[in-house]
Each structure stands twice: as structure tokens, then as C-alpha cells.
């Protein structure tokens, strides 16, 4: 199999459609093509170096400080705003469901440039409180003023856990909190904190459901390039680095033709009801081979659902859907698995916050295959950082 493509992988499929194997809801979910409707713009999850000024601050900064510093760079926001699947879905959710926003008080958690707040204001919100901890908050204020919404949108610079709102309750909390592998950067807990502190009893969280999926791929060529490369580096043995390389999940776009098995639902998160601790979990999986092939890696991706809309709406970050800036998360296996059609790779995945840096994600993968041509049982550890 050749190197995975970085272009949109399924040009015949709406960017927002579930894979046929998905079983999140019995109801049909309308995953619209973002090109169907109005304008564009919004937010992302990649990490940048801190501003030059921050380097002068000595050792006082924590990893959380560097996290917020990274979102001071306009390039991250440009990438997020240009992610049409992401931004247009939010825009369509807001503009096509104005009944949710009309005369309502909205809290935008992690507002970035303020694009979601602007969408809400234009949809008729009574007031929007846009909370942003990075220096982008200063630009958001200017953007709000430049577009004539200073009387509707209040930008608050600071951490959600530390600021005070001028109101005791809000009707809607909206946020684009999802990171790579859904949970990287751990902004979800901030949304849950805001929900518990400010959301009215009959209030709405948008989006309100996310689902994490797992599948398996053949990826010999790229695994050789990224992992086996260390066996011989200009004639020198650097294979000790392979262990570290295997532990670091790769964020990349997977070609759907590389998929060898079914796609298994690992976890559904109901943002309106879940507790902060629910983001740490262990989930079993059974991946059944759809053809005779090799498995070099498991691939995780997520779907996002807005179930409170007039028509159930959402988008997928899976390999069979239009590419987003989240791409997919590739976890290379220590073994090359030889699997035959109909055979099952059994296992479980444990996901938890890193103890030292809660924005990092620790993953433990257990897998077992007892097939005609391959028998293996192993535990592997990964760290997203």
C-alpha cells in the first residue's frame, strides 16, 4: 500500500456522513455537506512554540501556560477557520437553528477569534460571553468591535475556572473543545466545569455528543519510514529510538483503502450529562478482518453530534469522510499481524489523563490475535503529547 493521501479521501461522500457501520443513534443523523449553506470561519488543536517574549519569563511557566501561549499564534486559528467541515458545521448548526439562540444568553468556551460568538450574535442571541485565555482574546475584542457586535458580545480574557461572569446562568454553552484523538489537550473538563457552574437547568450544550472509534490498517511503507528507519541510520544502529517512536501516536490522514477491519465504537460521551472522570475509560474492542491482509497499526477517530438541532447534525473525522484538521490518530503496533478474512483481533484500550500534565493523554492498548497464520498477545503503551 502506498503512502496515505493528504487530500480529501472520499470525494463521493459528504464531509459530514457517518460510516455505514456507525450505530451512535437509531435516529438518522443529518451530516450536511458544509458547502450547502452560508459563509465560513473558526478553531484547531496543534501546538506551537511560545512567543519570543515568553522565553524571557524564566521557568515560571507551566505546560498549561505554554498551551495557552500556543493559541496566541494566528496561524493556528487560520488553520481552524479554514477547516470547512468543522467551521461550516458549527455555522449551519447556529444559523439553521435560530430558535435555539433567539434572545438567549450564550457562553462560548475557548472562543479564539470569536467566530462562534459572532455566529450566535448574528443568529439573534441576547448576549454572548466569549471566554478566551490566550492573547487572541485581545484580537477577538477588536474583531467584535469591527463587526459592530460590541453591544451583544463581551470578550472575557482568562481561564474559565478563574473568571466571573456578569450573569449567574446561561442558556447555551457552545465550544469547539475537541483535540487530536478527541481528548488531547483536555479542554473537555473546562466545558464540563462551565456546564456545572453556569448552565441553566434546561440549558443546552453544543455539541452534546461525541463518539470515539477504532479500526485497523495496513501501513507497511509508512511504518518502515517512521519506525524501522531507526534500525540503520547512515550505517548506525539507532534502534533504541524505535521504542520511543512506537509510543508516540502519529496524527495523519489515512487512506480509506488501507482499512482492513470493521470500525468499532469505543466510547460515546454525552457532554450534557457526563462527569469529568468519564473521559478516562477502558473499552473492549473486536476488529474483524474484511480481507486477507497485514495489520501494522490501529487508527482512532471521532464523530461529533449536535442532537438538539431541528435535524440531527454533526460531522466525522474518520478516514471515509472529508479530511479535517484533526485528521486521524495512528497507533503503530510492535507486531506485524497477518490476519485472514473473518478473523478477529480482540483487545481493549485504556485512556487516561497523564498524571504530570493533564493535557497529555496516556493510552494502554491490549490486543490478542489467534489466527491461522499469526498468534500474538501484547500490551503497548502510548502517550500523546
Automatic annotation (TrEMBL):
Question: From start to end residue, where is composition biased (Basic and acidic residues)?
Answer: 23-32
Pfam families, per the entry: Methyltransf_25, PRMT_C
Where does the Methyltransferase domain start and stop, copy by copy?
106-181
**Could you tell me which residues belong to the region Disordered?**
1-55
Which InterPro entries does UniProt cross-reference here? Arg_MeTrfase (IPR025799), Methyltransf_25 (IPR041698), PRMT_dom (IPR055135), SAM-dependent_MTases_sf (IPR029063)
Query: Could you name the Gene Ontology cellular component terms for this entry?
Result: nucleus
* Name the UniProt record assigns to this protein: Methyltransferase domain-containing protein
What is the species listed in this Swiss-Prot or TrEMBL entry? Answer: Carpinus fangiana
